[in-house]
């Protein structure tokens, strides 16, 4: 019978289903590398100051002109990256650098921060864990900060920034009074807060796996451990570059970031350091769980081999006696003795009882 090889499925966040751009194309060549998640591009505008907040759905970017020309702060959130022609109009209106445009469309970017003449560009990864399946859901988020506005781009309409919107609607004084750089901080901080939730879910997953290892010995446990390690490695690759980018932002001077607001970015940096420490601890725990599982399997195998060895040891002298008296010699002294048969049985039973008693005395049984 042919043995079926079991293939471990790759998690969805590691699947590389995208069309990459052709080699040799000029920098800034626009090519969408992600998956179409929305039927059409959706634009939402939020214009606010310390006294008011107005929300609008935009059909075209030109409708934002009155708000951008007013002294209030403006935030435009764009959902959907598949319609390049519509996105070009947005980028042209804000005069975004071609490299920013290219990076927004490349949805498999490494998290980073780059500063241009009039804009500061952030690339982050939004991560959540689905409650039903426990699968890690990943989405690229781009934030473009300028002197009077903030542009955000995401792949679908997942309510990433709902906590920030709630604070704007409830009239949070610090968010309403500070400039766009504080809004950019609030958006980044919201994404990092989701990282902390992911960490909690991974911690619960590790605890469940540990209990499963101690109570059961399912063959699926190594597969679950390897899936957990892949998740942690991907998580680390997402958080580490963002930490380095924020560290550079804190060390350098920028005309787009108010010095008074840098302390808030430093707080996000501290959260990222905390998350990275947690990831490293969880990676060590995942390796320890694999060792624990292999030790449990080895101990179980040793117990089985111990029982089989004891049984074999008990039957060795019995086989020896049976072999001697099973020989076909004509002149054997015991063959003509009346009590020979029960005597041999007595010796065999006595030897068995004696060995069992000896094994118990040595705590081998």
Q: How does this model look, in words?
A:
The chain is α+β, with helices and mostly antiparallel strands and 365 residues long. The protein has two domains: 27-295, Beta Polymerase, domain 2; 301-361, Methane Monooxygenase Hydroxylase, Chain G, domain 1 (Up-down Bundle), CATH 1.20.58. The chain has helices at residues 65-68, 84-94, 98-105, 162-169, 173-177, 180-215, 221-251, 262-324, 340-361, and strands spanning 42-48, 53-58, 73-79, 112-115, 120-129, 136-145, 149-154. Strand 5 and strand 6 form a beta hairpin. Helix 6 (180-215) runs antiparallel to helix 7 (221-251) and helix 7 (221-251) packs antiparallel against helix 8 (262-324). The longest helix has 63 residues, at 262-324.
CATH superfamily (homologous) name of the largest domain:
CorA soluble domain-like
User: Class of the largest domain in CATH?
Assistant: Alpha Beta
Number of helices: 9
Poorly predicted tracts of residues: 1-9
Based on the coordinates given, report the CATH architecture of the largest domain.
2-Layer Sandwich
Helical amount? 40-55%
User: What is the average per-residue confidence, as pLDDT, rounded to a whole number?
Assistant: 85
Following the backbone from N to C, one meets helices and strands in this order, namely EEHEHHEEEEHHHHHH
Output the CATH topology of the largest domain.
Answer: Beta Polymerase, domain 2
Strand content: 5-15%
Structural class: alpha+beta
Main sheet summary: 7 strands, mixed
Assembly state (oligomeric): single chain
* Cα shape: rod-shaped
Report the end-to-end length measured between terminal Cα atoms. 39 Å
Return the domain count: 2
- Major sheet: arrangement of strands: 2-1-3-7-6-5-4
State the total count of DSSP E strands: 7
